[in-house]
Design a protein that fits this description.
By secondary structure, the protein is α+β, with helices and mostly antiparallel strands. It has helices at 133-138, 162-184, 187-190, 193-207, 215-223, 231-242, 253-274, 287-292; strands spanning 4-12, 15-25, 28-36, 42-48, 51-59, 65-71, 74-82, 88-94, 97-106, 111-118, 121-129, 213-214, 250-251. The two termini are 48 Å apart.
Length: 296
Amino acid sequence: MRCGNGTYWVLSNGKLRREYTGEWMDDRRAGRGAFFYKNGDRYDGLWANDLSQGEGRMIYANGDIFEGQWHEGKRNGYGSLTKRNGDHYEGQWVNDKREGQGSYYYKDKAKMFVGEWVNDMPKAGVYTQVEDEELLAKIPEKKHFTDPYFQPDIPILRLKNAAAVLETAMENVKRERASYRAQHIPIEAMFTASELDELERAFREAAQGSLFVDLLSLKTLLEGMEIYPLDKDIMKLVKVCLKTDEEVTEINFETFVRVFALLLEESMNNVEVEQQAVPEPVKVEDSVQFVKKLNP
């Protein structure tokens, strides 16, 4: 059984090719190591259970480079992607795709997009021009058309309350993608270590020695946190987190955390709606304050 540091070689086209160099545990890649893919990609970083997990860098065969967080072999968390053509993305990733807050610099256009991403595409945000001396130097000094041009009087169109419209659009995107993100974001990225400890303590008390809790115990557990969802809403969220359409009778700790995160998001959104008529902004209870209710 492989354990410790070592190099694994594979036979490819009649020749030995190095595939992995690094740490092993229980015959699996675990710790820090470098993996050399057959297509020319190379990953350097942390491993767990034979999959890239934690901080790591992938140098792709096409020249692109990703540096950031990995979870179960996929880009998940905060990371940056620098493309061979000079484009650069920095922000959140979910399930190996750009998802959430992120910024993208378009090298050829010298423009920057900052905002919400959905399924690897920009969804709601702001485009701005970026000063790029190298790009400006490539623009020819003489224009193709040199005849004088007179701009007619055209009324200027401006979006009323542009900042408010943008904020609303980005919040709508977050709400629409809340279920998807709750399914794929690691629970360690949703809450701090101390918050997860409090949640686990409460879960264990409700489970009474089991690894699962039934939905009645789940409802009682949530009511202890002053969250009062309907039975049908609990079942709906459980199905969303488990990605199933079948009836569920019990859930484990990870599913509980994901359901709690969605309920917390809904609670905060409801408070924000109720406070829209208040002249002065009021701070909404954050996740830390909600979790503190577990230990009155």
